[in-house]
Amino acid sequence: MDRVASMLHEELQRSHACAIDASMVCPPFARRLTRVPLAGRARAAFSAVRFMNRFWRYPRALERLKDEYDVFHIVDHSYAHLAHALPGDRTVVTCHDLDAFRSVLEPERERRSSVFRAMTRKILAGLQRAARVTCDSTAVRNELVGRGLVPADRVTVVPLGVTRIFAPVPNPACDREAAALLRSPLPGASEILHVGSTVPRKRIDVLLRICAAVRNDFPDVRLVHVGDSLTPQQQRIASDAGLADRLVAVNGVHDPILAALYRRAALVLLPSEREGFGLPLVEAMASGTPVVASDLPVLREVGGFAAEYCAAGDVDAWQAKVAALLRERRDNPAGWQQRRDSGCLRASRFTWTQFAASMVDVYASVTGRSAESLALQRDSSPKVARAFQASDIR
């Protein structure tokens, strides 16, 4: 969620400085226990430090600021417990998905310790304390309201944007760096790209089996994964599927290089069983690369008719769809170009400029003023702080 906070801050400064005086609030992550040689190597030590930062240091840091701003915006719902340290009637929380709350909402499926569930309940209560909650998609909004977690009149849908760097226009320097990153790709290989983490809901196991099945028709296919390293179990699946020499996994890729990876890919696959928005879907379309995604309401909401869909987990259906698209790419260049153009057009609906403008409307509603009146009253314009943490690695 670092991208959401940074792009929002950038757009507010660029386009709304006359109405909003925005500041980024991100308390530093203290590592006292992990500096102890023996303790620093223990997972338990890091967990204890993370808990202390999230639930003790961060709330106290915000308490000291609660009178300095008119509106607070917590950009990551997994830190919604910080709303307890803030005036609820002046706090906005962005809810990207409901995964952080599964251990409380679906305890039979998401088994966690009693301590973990207690922390989750506190985070959820913070979300419910906020004056306004924004969601990335209507699908998330419907689930949030449908479960009775937040009243409908306090929830607003504000779709994410796509960074301008994601475009079909070649960038020779970045394209060369992307090629070097992939370690001498095979000539003529059809690259299938996946961008995202390796948490269970991303269904990396399905992704690997899809690519293995597609190789029966297209032996030159190889998989590029951008994100976390594969787990040992996922590595075993890749090895058993015969993908060991056809898989490249990279991490820590900056946007210009990621955009180049999108551009060079034949297809982007998004086989997740749950998503809150599916930003790689929009980034891929903006880059001119067709996408096959799980048939989830949220992904259909974002991709529309510009993407292709398969039932989550149905490897046979995915294999047939991917093979058909690769044949179209090979045999029907005009149809393939039309598909690429359709994706670019769909992606153009999602901009950070519109995202920021919608957030300004939300801030105005919290202050009881219109966005227009804020622009006319610069001297009394709201000061907005985004209390934000996407990662405990600082």
Instruction: Quote the beta fraction.
Output: 5-15%
Total domain count: 2
Q: State the strand order across the main sheet.
A: 1-12-2-3-4-5
Q: Tally of extended strands? A: 12
Helix content: 40-55%
Mean pLDDT: 89
Query: What ranges have pLDDT less than 50 throughout 5 or more consecutive residues?
Result: 389-394
Count of helical stretches: 15
Task: Provide keyphrases for this structure.
disordered C terminus, six-stranded parallel β-sheet, single chain, Rossmann fold, 394 residues, 15 helices, 2 domains, alpha/beta, 44% helix
Describe this structure in words.
The chain is an alpha/beta fold. The chain has two domains: 2-161 and 351-387, Rossmann fold (3-Layer(aba) Sandwich); 172-347, Rossmann fold, CATH 3.40.50. It is 44% helix and 13% strand. The protein has 15 helices and twelve strands. It has helices at residues 2-15, 43-63, 102-105, 114-129, 138-146, 172-181, 204-214, 232-240, 255-264, 279-286, 297-303, 315-331, 333-347, 352-367, 371-376, and strands spanning 21-25, 71-74, 91-95, 132-135, 155-157, 191-195, 222-226, 247-250, 267-270, 291-294, 308-310, 383-387. The strands form two sheets. It has a six-stranded parallel sheet, with helices on both faces. A six-stranded parallel sheet has the order 8-7-6-9-10-11, with helices on both faces. Helix 1 (2-15) packs across helix 14 (352-367) and helix 7 (204-214) packs across helix 12. The longest helix is centred in the first third of the chain and has 21 residues, at 43-63.
